[in-house]
UniProtKB/TrEMBL annotation:
Taxonomy of the source species: Bacteria, Pseudomonadati, Pseudomonadota, Alphaproteobacteria, Rhodobacterales
PANTHER family: 2,3-DIKETO-L-GULONATE-BINDING PERIPLASMIC PROTEIN YIAO, PTHR33376
Record bears the keyword Ribosomal protein: no
Protein name per UniProt: DctP family TRAP transporter solute-binding subunit
Cell compartments where the protein resides: Periplasm
NCBIfam families: dctP, TRAP_S1
Keyword field contains Disulfide bond: no
UniProt-listed InterPro entries: DctP_fam, TRAP_DctP, TRAP_DctP_sf
Pfam family, any one: DctP
Listed GO MF terms: carbohydrate binding
Alphabetical UniProt keywords: Periplasm, Signal
A single BP term in Gene Ontology: transmembrane transport
Length: 335
């Protein structure tokens, strides 16, 4: 009896050990975008990551797209708790690592290539290390959500004066409220799910989002004018639980890190392609699109940046040093 029980106990322990080992060999990757790699930057990035990791290691990658595991804030929390190993997120990163919010200072990046140089260089490395220490999440690479642009139903916007009197839906984030205030508009924080109804009923005159988001969610059908001012460049953070990362072998770590870098590059490419296609598509469907000149962008920046920088310096405290570090990195990359 005792011998039989011991055999059963040993078998149970072995079974549990095998299950744990199998679980340890699986990387759960989650994001909120569609799964279609041809149209979704996060979708494309996730599939590239999966293919490289599974092709070069014994690890298995499971993808959970389209918010299947929750919104971005929830995904960040799950990654911190080890429930999800890898998350592709944008704005939610600043909620756990406030220094990341400096990337949302309006009109910081004159082009995507400057943003890439900054994020893939010493500044991006330093910010990633800082956020790792703050959150336990290792930033493997940066992807791209794209430049955000204003749309509205009333008139073409060429200067900040054209913003006056217009009500714009903004994310319920103080930084965006300060930005629209600085430009002379009337910011109205509204949840994403309520945006189409707010535009349809005239609760707000306009909104701001990347071109791909505007087209893929049919917001162009509710708006007449778009201004490609690119006021905020939104970066994707490809993060992994550092506890899980440290459990991998050095060879696996190397492949995972490489896969993330390639994935981020793929996401950027899909986003750039989608933006160009999106502009053509909204124009073909009747939307009027205006591209401001460099001088006009400078006028927008002169109005929006001081208000946001002042707000962030008050909010970040000691972390406000990241504002200066970012500005220095952008100046260097712009030479």
């Amino acid at each position: 009896m005792t011998f039989a029980f011991s055999k059963l106990a040993a078998a149970a322990v072995i079974t549990m050990g095998l299950a744990t080992a199998a679980q340890a060999q699986t990387i759960r990757v989650a994001h909120v975008d569609p799964d279609d790699w041809t149209a979704s930057k996060k979708g494309a990035a996730a599939h590239v990551f999966k293919n490289i990791v599974e092709g070069e290691t014994g690890l298995t990658v499971e993808i959970f797209p389209a918010g299947a595991l929750g919104n971005e804030t929830e995904l960040v929390g799950q990654a911190q708790e080890g429930l999800t190993q890898v998350a592709l997120v944008s704005g939610a990163m600043s909620k756990v690592c406030p220094a990341a919010s400096v990337l949302d200072i309006p009109y910081t990046f004159a082009s995507a290539t400057i943003a890439w140089d900054v994020l893939d260089g010493p500044f991006g490395d330093a910010l990633a290390q800082h956020c790792l220490e703050q959150t336990g999440l290792r930033t493997l690479a940066f992807g791209e959500t794209g430049f955000r642009n204003f749309t509205n139903n009333q008139r073409e916007i060429r200067t900040p004066d054209d913003m006056k009197g217009l009500k714009f839906r903004v994310q319920p984030i103080p930084l965006y409220v300060e930005m629209v205030k600085g430009l002379g508009g009337e910011p109205t924080p509204i949840a994403w799910t309520e945006l189409p109804n707010a535009l349809s009923t005239g609760v707000v005159d306009g909104q701001e989002n990347p071109v791909g988001v505007i087209y893929n969610n049919s917001l162009h059908k509710l708006q007449k004018f778009m201004t490609l001012d690119g006021h905020v460049y939104a970066a994707d953070f490809i993060v992994i639980s550092d506890e899980f990362y440290q459990s991998l072998t050095p060879a696996e770590q190397q492949v995972v890190a490489k896969a993330a870098r390639v994935a981020g590059t793929m996401g950027r490419a899909i986003q750039q392609w989608g933006t160009a296609e999106g502009v053509k598509k909204v124009q073909a469907e009747g939307m009027q699109v205006y591209s401001p000149t460099a001088d006009e962008i400078a006028a927008f920046a002169a109005k929006a940046q001081p208000a946001v920088v002042e707000y962030l310096r008050g909010e970040l405290g000691d972390d406000a040093v990241w504002i200066d570090r970012l500005q220095e990195a952008v100046a260097e990359a712009s030479k």
